[in-house]
Amino acid sequence: MSDPRAQGVAGWVRAIRAFTGGADPRCLQLAQWRALTLRERAAQGISGDDMARVEREHGCRPDAPRGGPGANPLRTPPPGR
Fold first, then answer.
1. Helix/strand/coil for 55
2. Cα 81 from Cα 68, distance rounded (Å)
3. pTM score, two decimals?
4. Domain boundaries, position 35
5. What is the pLDDT of residues 35-70, one digit of tens each?
6. Which of 17, 26, 60, 70 sits CB 3.0–4.6 Å from 55 for a disulfide?
């Protein structure tokens, strides 16, 4: 069974967007949700299940790891830190 979102003109638009690196608006919204605290998410009625569903349905990439100590796997922090 084929995905109805992959058919017709909308399918071509999604394929071109994926090929050129364009962002899905729902993925941008998901990134904004991830930046919220748990309290802010609860106030807006956003659950972890909602976020997982949007990520799965729209093919959003998981959050990139943030920089900071220990972010580079090739570099180990000096002992004592």
1. helix
2. 13
3. 0.54
4. 23-61
5. 899 999 999 999 999 999 988 888 787 765 555 555
6. 60
